[in-house]
Amino acid sequence: MNRFFFLFFLLLGLQSQAQYYWVFFETETTEELDIISKEYTRITGCDLIGTSKWFNAACVESDIDPLADYPLVREVKALGKYQVETSSVQGSADTSLGYSKLQLEMLGLDSFHRLGYRGLGVKIGVFDGGFLRVDSFPIFDSMRNENRLLNYYDFVEDNDEVFEDDGHGMWVLSILGGNSPDSLIGAAPKASFVLARTENVHSETHLEEFNWVKAMEWADSLGVDIIHSSLGYSIFDSLQGDYSYTDMDGQSTIITKAAEMAYEKGIFITNSAGNEGDDPWRHITAPCDGKHVLCVGAVDSFEKIAKFSSIGPSSDGRVKPDVVAMGKKTSYHYNSGTILQGNGTSFSGPLMAGFVACLKEKWPRMSNDRIFEAIIRSADRYDSPDTSYGYGLPNILRADSILTRMLSISEEVKDAEGVYFYPNPSNGEVRISSKLEIENIDVYSTSGGLLRRINTFEISNGLFELNELPFGIYQIRWNSAKRVGSKRLIYRP
């Protein structure tokens, strides 16, 4: 458990408490950071909470302002807080997609699923306040049985017990990756997941922002492709100072900087816009102000903006939110094991995270920049964005078509040998694009971590078929008169 130390004193009738701060150092290595952080906290009397290698910074707890003029200290800043809104009513099901039918159809995901793209092979990190009983609820059975629940960690309590805490992350995960036919189908029901508890929902301390950064670094080390979180930073606890709307400029808050750094490292970031639309704050919260953060607002079942959905633009005038999805009366799996409907951008956000995952499954070599662009261009208000809808409601079939037009001969889909197999994943027929004359294909099984040749195909008219083989992941080795090479190929229905 985190320990909190309070110092009470009388000063103009106000009450003060221990607070949390970022202390940024001038260091070059992780070893230097650890040494300097420990020495700094020893001399200043602060408590060291942890360090961030990305920012060369320490998170400390102190009941007074930490020293800013200590040698090697660049800057001292306070941390922020988490916000979320949920509510629920009973829903109803009517097709094999169950209660999730409308929220998937609105984005074209039902059709994309039927084409075979469900997020297979894509790793998604979900940051939230807890993942109650994800280890036991039947809606996550296939995720567990297929070993697609890759890792999890509680950054609040510093342990791996995330399944006993708040249910909000479980609700989000059910919308994103749940798989219960005729009941609830997630936006990316075949994706793989890592789960991070970054928020203590029972308090409003300033450690959540630090936890989020640490979780980001951890997720990066695990090789995630997408990170989604349904949180936002704007109002701090008492006496620590709030973010202002001016700070929503894409470069001022620590969490937005972290999100942008993650994007530069190849991680696609999706984040819920916030539920401040009918509150005094009204605007999006960090990190949704990030240039490369796909900020997701909420609409109802009639595709009308939900009043609670936070508005834009960013304070420097960029379009925000970027897109919207169904976030009012959205179907999700509740703590009792029943399907309810809830309101909040917490529920529209995971739909778009799954949208991105399905695109990434089909286009594994396409850059995040192009995927982001295709999503924006596929939205129904692309030509006339506003501060409520952003670019509007995207459609994954249109986004897929846009990516196809972007393709041509691109370095993003050609390997070093100029040989490309498509589609990948394949449902049986595989075509080859190559300047070389490919003579034959050897197919190797990767089962059990060992390569074993199981078939050889002669190439006819630039294609071959896998219909004789069971579904799975194979290593394909090609042979030409001049060269040989190999690629991984996924074969599934």
**How many β-strand runs?**
23
Unreliable spans are 1-16, 81-94, 409-416
Helix fraction, binned, reads 10-25%
Strand content: 15-25%
Please summarize the sheet with the most strands.
7 strands, parallel
The radius of gyration is 24 Å
| Strand line-up in the sheet with most strands | 7-10-6-11-12-13-14
Cα(first) to Cα(last) distance is 46 Å
Q: So how many helices? A: 10
Structural class: alpha/beta
Per the principal axes of the C-alpha atoms, what is the gross shape?
globular
Q: What is the arithmetic mean of pLDDT?
A: 84
Structure description:
By secondary structure, the protein is α/β, with parallel strands linked by helices. Helices cover 22% and strands 25% of the residues. It is built from ten helices and 23 strands. It has helices at residues 30-44, 101-105, 109-114, 141-145, 168-177, 208-221, 254-264, 345-362, 368-377, 396-407, and strands at 19-25, 47-52, 57-62, 73-78, 88-90, 123-128, 149-154, 179-180, 184-185, 192-197, 226-229, 268-272, 293-299, 323-326, 330-333, 339-342, 419-422, 429-434, 438-445, 452-458, 463-465, 472-480, 484-491. It has a seven-stranded parallel beta sheet, with helices on both faces. It has a four-stranded antiparallel beta sheet with strand order 2-3-1-4, with helices on both faces. The protein has a four-stranded antiparallel beta sheet with strand order 20-19-22-23, with no helix packed on it. Helix 5 (168-177) packs parallel to helix 8 (345-362), helix 6 runs parallel beside helix 7 and helix 9 (368-377) crosses helix 10 (396-407). The longest helix has 18 residues, at 345-362. The protein starts with 18 loop residues before the first strand and ends with a strand. The model is unreliable at 1-16, 81-94 and 409-416 (pLDDT under 50).
